[in-house]
Specification:
Chain lengths: 102, 196
């Protein structure tokens, strides 16, 4: 796994990484205890999204915008998950590898 | 009618709550309330991919997403496929043909007429300047027609790259912003493509 972009504050960890020859985006919302992993079909610079979030633009929801980018994703909450083209197993694999490189 | 209030929640929570609520009902309607556009898009996409019919109402900056699951949707799908074909309409400009003035009248007429087409198109794909037809500031009759088509289950797919190019990502009023992969999939999954 190769980290391509990483942004972090008290609430969010956002990572773009090359994994298995494909680009993934990982979002961890510590406040809400939700996580998401999506596979990007085309490379997207996440910096403008993060900058909007940091500026605190009214009505801008960082993970909501980021989750519009991937077609295939898996969403993980405390009590439920949604496999939308990616499996929970893939999510766990990714998360384990991510821990090694962070 | 069941209500799922997701105001104040960030994604993916609204999508997960919608999924849970849909799993609890066999058929019928639920309303998901969200307070930002991107969240609305995520919930709408999820529900549409789950085979539900989706209609969105905006009230004071909040979005009421009406999601219908069950028999009615399946029956409508059957009716739509009655002709045996899934038709995609591909629009790449804000007007039809060479003359712009006449072309703008024509595109409005065509889009409004699609409401009465039998069968309805399965999806309408907007690329290049045509994405402006689905954004705030577009001709009101065209916007209303696209919303009505969406309410009838027609997917309105807008090229995300094009929206981004014209700085219109936050101005999308109807349909979903999609990537190149989704646009291509929508085209190859259609039995025939009508280009305006």
């Amino acid at each position: 796994m190769k980290l391509l972009q990483k942004f972090q504050d008290d609430r969010y960890l956002v990572v773009k990484a090359l994994y298995g020859g494909e680009i993934f985006i990982y979002i961890d919302d510590r406040a809400q205890k939700t996580q998401a992993l999506g596979r990007l079909k085309e490379d997207v610079d996440l910096k403008p999204f993060w900058e909007k979030h940091v500026k605190g633009e009214k009505g801008f929801c960082l993970p909501c915008h980021l989750l519009l980018l991937p077609t295939h994703k898996v969403l993980v909450g405390e009590s439920s998950t949604a496999e939308l083209g990616l499996t929970l197993e893939r999510f766990k694999e990714f998360k384990n590898r991510l821990k090694e490189v962070l | 009618m069941k209500k799922v209030d997701c105001r104040g929640l960030a994604c993916p929570a609204p999508v997960l709550k919608t999924k849970e609520a849909l799993e609890e009902i066999e058929k019928g309607e639920l309303v998901v309330i969200v307070d930002n556009k991107a969240s609305k898009e995520n919930v709408k996409r999820f529900a549409q991919k789950a085979g539900c019919r989706v209609r969105v109402e905006e009230k004071d900056g909040e979005f009421y997403i009406h999601i219908v699951k069950g028999e009615a949707t399946a029956q409508e799908e059957e009716e739509r496929r009655e002709g045996g074909k899934e038709v995609a309409v591909f629009i790449a400009s804000t007007y039809v043909g060479e003359d712009e003035e006449l072309g703008k009248i024509l595109i409005k007429g065509f889009i409004k007429t699609f409401i009465n087409a039998q069968p309805l198109p399965r999806r309408i794909i907007l690329v290049n300047t045509a994405v402006k037809l689905a954004c705030r500031g577009a001709d009101e009759e065209i916007l209303a027609a696209l919303k009505e088509l969406e309410g009838k289950g027609v997917e309105i797919i807008c090229c995300g790259t094009c929206l981004n190019y014209f700085n219109l990502l936050d101005e999308l009023e109807v349909g979903v912003a999609s990537n190149a992969y989704d646009v291509v999939q929508a085209l190859v999954n259609s039995d025939s493509v009508v280009r305006l």
